[in-house]
Each structure stands twice: as structure tokens, then as C-alpha cells.
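FAQ
Q: What does a multi-component entry look like?
A: The components come first, one per line:
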Amino acid sequence: MHPERQEDKGTELITEKRFFTFAEPPEKMVLENGAELGPVTIAYETYGTLSPRRDNAVLIAHAFSGDSHAAGYYTDDTARQKPGWWNSVVGPGKGIDTDKHFVICSNMLGSCMGSTGPSSINPETGRPYGLDFPMVTIGDIVAAQKRLIDHLNISKLLSVVGGSVGGMQVLEWCLRYPQMVRSAVALATTMRHSAMAIAFNEVARQAIMADPNWNRGDYYHANPPTTGLAVARMVGHVTYLSDEAMRRKFGRRLQDRADFSYEVGVDFEVESYLRHQGSKFTRRFDANSLLYITKAADYFDLTNNRGQGGESRSFTAGKTKYLVISYSSDWLYPTYQSRELVQALKRAGRDVSFCEIEADAGHDAFLLPDERLRNILRGFLDGVAEKH
Amino acid sequence: MELQRNTDMRYDLQVIASWVESGSRVLDLGCGSGDLLAWLTANKKVHGTGIERDQNKVAQCIAKGLTVLQGDFSREVDDYPDKAFDYVILSQTLQQVYEPASLLYSLARIGSRVVVSFPNFSHYSIRLQLLFRGMAPKNEQLPYSWYDTPNIRVITLNDFRKFARDVGYRIVREMAINTHHHEVTGKIVTNLTNLRATYGIFSIEKDR
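Then the predicted structure of the entire assembly, as C-alpha cells:
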């Protein structure tokens, strides 16, 4: 352990985004819904060094709007302004220690951060796919990651780690490729969306589709539906926070004014904050990708796989060691949903640990720096590595 | 009986650890910071699982590489299949359980053997206090007052033996010891156990 290196002190990782392309026609990738897609490109980054026995690889699955940039800084980011989204967890001496582990993070299929998605060029038309992009599932996203892991010539992953929609991918890995997964860490996630989670996603989708610029997904040569996308992000953002966190951050404070405006514009700080988050999001994310990925998350159901004939799925194969973590103020995927997952794992006789971390930050808590999470992850991964 | 001395575990846990066979599947209820599980994993290669209510202790356990679930064990045990464990361990907790009979029933379902340890309420110091002071007794094992004690069940070694007989558990092994709560040393009591022992440890199984 390197306690002196736990804080960022110049030992930062420098990383670059790489690309892997597969499923070149006619060998297209067959998706869960039967559609074919190809070629498929997956953007990814790696940190640390693969051991000679190739047995120290940790795959990180990002959440719905994330990307492959989990840790460190890009070579050209000399001002060190854009650390990876999980830089507090992944790095030298950190919870997922890149001095010990070879860490891989790939952008999910259907996204817009370098991997193939609705904004990619459809080779058959020479134009962006838009709604011609086939609907992908969490299973398809994981199948594409599997192709990347095969390409890196890794036959067994020390761990697959992810929060939120990333946690769904972790669970999907365990069901699809149990022999490849030595351990799995599912943070702030669920076996299936509740009606409430689907409802919020639907409001987000409707916000986009109600924007006239959306134009049934065909907007890549015109003005994109930024208003709709911003509103979609505002809704999503509220579900990632909590009552406590919002009270602490904003309360009823007014934005740059002493009294109400008695107009329909911005009065409260929380309004200003959400607008800022919404508009910031439109500069980096594609509206169609949001539609596709939220659908994939809504379809995900570990207890009943409609896409494959409706048979029930269970964690019966493999020797995967599981770690499930929930956050006390997460109302998007509340603790009871993690407990349901733990219950299913116990019933299947799996080796599972569970901890509910006290935090007032809501669903987003898993992304925030937290010493408890670091210690848990470090010890858990060390334990798995030792058992080899 | 020979006990492993190279440990700073509580004495009753040392006795329990010596009873567990190598390579077995163990469930430790109220596992605290995981001392027993860590010892059993390192020295007896057991496949251990713990259940603990306190978040910080759970986090400590997981950080040690142990398999531990945060939760209330009286509820958590219901999820396991029959005979999922070779040993289910309930140390120094039975006296705090609201429904001990139904809990033990669940434990005997999920484990081949159930190992329980509890403070003996018929130790002579307790008897004398009640006799001479006429007040609810306190000692090092049972330090609380009547109004703040978590120990809501008054159990003696004889009571437990009778309970096992009546309900249909076979006592596979038992040991009476003298120690106090955080002490790592103790001794085995062989004569007049119900009078002289501060703790009893029993390994029971369901009659077939």
C-alpha cells in the first residue's frame, strides 16, 4: 500500500484513447434483436501493465453518459484539466491500483465517445446512422467488450467493475462469460429498472423527441436538438442527486439576486445549476445516443431475458467472487434493489459481499472521492489476486 | 485439549476455531471486524462468510479480503439454501436474540452444525449477587443494568441443554470456559460447569 500516494501528487497517469475495429462486413456482429451491425469500433484506454501471465486485468464499465477516459490525463492535456471520470479510484496506489493491475475501460457500443453509435457513419449510406442504428442491449454492449478483451489476448479478468449502468454490464459479464470473470464489483446498480427509473428515462427521451430539431434522429447536418437534450440531462441529473444533497448544495438560495424576479426566468440557484449542467452536457453528448442507451438500460432485466426467449437467468455458473455496494441516499437504484441482487446471489450459492455506504450524495456517490470505497476496492481486489 | 495460542482472538473464538474442520464452509453471524473469519481463512482454509450490521466493520472485513454481508442476520439467513454451510457460528449473541428458538431452527436448516457461545447466567457470582443483594446481577460478562442491557435472554448451561433436548437438537460437543469478554486467555472448566463457568460453547445439530 502507498498511503503517501493516495492523493494526486504528480504520479498521475498519462493515457491515450485507442480504437479497436471488428465485425467488418460480411462478418457483422449479430445483435440480441437479430439485427446485424458492422464494422464496429470500440474506443478504449488502458492503464498500468499487463502481467506476463496476463492475469491482472481489471475491466471498468462506465455509466450511461461516461466514456473510456476513466483515469489520468490525455497526452495533450498539459494543463491537467480533464482527469478521467474515476480518477479518485483508478491510479497508482489508489483503490484500483494501476501499479498492480492492468486496467481497461472502453466506451460502450451505442455511445458517442469514440465507439460506434447512432452518430457514426453508416457505411451503406455514407451518412450518420441516426435511427437506422439498430437497438443495442446491455448484452450487446458486453458482447462488444468481450471482443475487445479477446483482442487484447486476455482469457480471464481479475475483475469487472462498474457503477449504475456500468454495474448492469458487470452483471451481464457474469452471466454471459462466467469463466472469464474472477470477481465482479457492482456499485449503485440494479438487476432491472423499476417503473420509476423507466419513467424518468422516458421523460428524458420525450424531451429530446419533442424538440423540433430532433427531426426523427436526422439532425447531424443541421442544428441538433440541444434544448431537448439539455432538459433530458436536467431530469437525469436530479435523479442522481438526493433531497439531502440538494438541500446542502442549494437550499432555497436565490441566484444573483436579493428577491424574486416575479418572472418565469431563473430565480433559484438550483435552477441555474441544472441549466448549466444541461447545456454543458449538450457540448459533449449526442441526443440519439441518450435515446439508445436509456432504452438499453430500461430493457435490462437479469431476472427475465425477453430477448432470448424469456427464460429466467441465474448466477449458477463460474466461481466469480462478487462485491455489491449501494449508497444510502441513492433513490434511483435504492439499497433494496442491491439487496435483491445479493439475495439472488446467495440463493445461487455464490460468494458475495455487500456493503451499504452511508452517503448523502445520492446515486452519484459512487463517482465521488471516498476513502471507504478506495479501501474496500483495494482490499477486495488484493484478496482476489492472492487466491490465484 | 490443545488450543492454538498464536492468536489474539477472544478465548471463546479460539475454542470455536479449534472445532472447525479444515476446508469447511463457515457462516459467522455478527462477525464484527472479522477476526475469527480471517484466522479460519488463513489457518484452516475455510470458505468463510460473515454477516455484520455495522457498516464500518463490514468495510474493514471486505478490505481484508473476507466475504461479508451487511445486514441483520436474523433476516439474512433466510436466503441461503439448506445445508449451505458446514458450520454456522453464533458467538456471544444468543442472549440478545428476540426469537432464539426460530433463529436456531433457521441456522440448523442452513448449516450442518450450529456453534453457539453465550454467557452462563448461573455462574456462582451471579447467584450470590442475587441471593445477597437481591438486585439484578452484574459482572464482567454481563455488565449492564436491567434497563439498558442488550442481553434480553437469561440462559444457563443447564437451560441450553434442556432446550436442545426438548426441541430436538443433538449436542455434538460442548465446552464450559472461564474468561471475560475481551480477554484472549481463559481456561476450560470441567467440574460443576453450570456453577463455575462464565461461558458455554455448544455445537449442535438437528436430530435426523
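Q: Is there any commentary attached?
A: Sometimes. For this entry: The CA atoms of residues 56 and 378 of chain A lie 13 Å apart.
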